[in-house]
Model the fold of this input.
Amino acid sequence: MRMPAAEHSPPRLPQELIDHILDHLHDDSVALNNCALVCQAWLPTSRLHLFSKISLKATSPHNGPAVPQERCKRLHALLVRSPEIIYNIRELEICEGSPHHHHYPDICSTTWVTTERTLTALFKMLTHVKRLDFSATSTLYWKILPPTFQAALWTLLSLPTLTYIRLHSWIFPDFASLASILSRCQNLKAFALSSTNISNDSGPELDQTSPEDAVEKIKSTHLEVLTLDFVTFGYLEYWLLGHRALVNISSLRELRIAHFHDAAIVEKLLLTVGPSLEHFHLKPGSWKVHPFDLSQNSGLRSIRLTLEDPDTAMQWATTLLASITSDNLALERVGLEFYTDPKKIEGWNNLDSLFVQPELVSLRQVEIGLFAMSTHADFIRVKEEMSGLGSRGVSRWYQLGIKSQRSSRQLTPRISRYES
Done:
């Protein structure tokens, strides 16, 4: 009697291995879309990466046109149909306005955040957002935002998962307005202000929460990352270091300052933060050279200095390096970016001599970016003048001004848990 042939199911990879393979495609949306259609087992991980970051902005000329309000409507409709996707959205990027210098006649205007109703609906639907980046290509005025929009935004800000906020190109009429935003945050760890103005005007309150009550709520949050990039804030010293501080910076691990108006406040910040600070990035702009006391920052692991003025660039670099003392034994990395013609800068030999001083013996890497091609005579000359550093075997030289070396990229948090 002939027995029927045994039925064999096709071999299947373990789910853990499938997920690991799909993880390697996290930044390839085309491949992830195709993987999501293969079978049910591939869908959850594909969705996890496809929807982890939502960008609602007009795309740059390099990536083609986009209408953010249409994208917002489609996303809202999708989440209504498939609410399980909501849990995958961890990062939300919103931009009001059109990209600069776009050449798309179909995009005549993208002023949309206060008129597109599905955006406020999304603010109330999302439950697992970790990072919020809210910017504008012109200016967003908090004072004229509709109350319904403010209330919806407060709902998003109150999420316990939210740990990072970046606001770019905003104007707040007073401190109370900014405090009313931050007071909603439950677990804020990283906060960035860019091209933002907090005026000193006193006007009608936009919220029932008083400034004092708002500050008391915020003080329970220990901020770990603070970025101030082209920020005008008249009473920043009081609101960061005063009795009723805007945020608690006693556990700050990363401080990034660019084109700020007062170097003395930055020095007070460094002294107040003390040994908890690990990463310090300074872009002084038009400041006069100012020495900083880094002796209290014994936990400092990296320093980056971005310089644009040829008249003060070298003096800034040598002054900051000279401020490193024997108390900074944890320092491992130093980065210097010279965004100016190298031939206009003198004193490379003096800079080289600082890198062989005993206080910098613990350095494991020194990165120096020059605004010149690596094959240019000026680039080669500077490297030769800094032969002492080269002999240590810890230097990395690179060309500035190319896409992968944009200075603005260095103003994003460096601590891995805040990276997208």
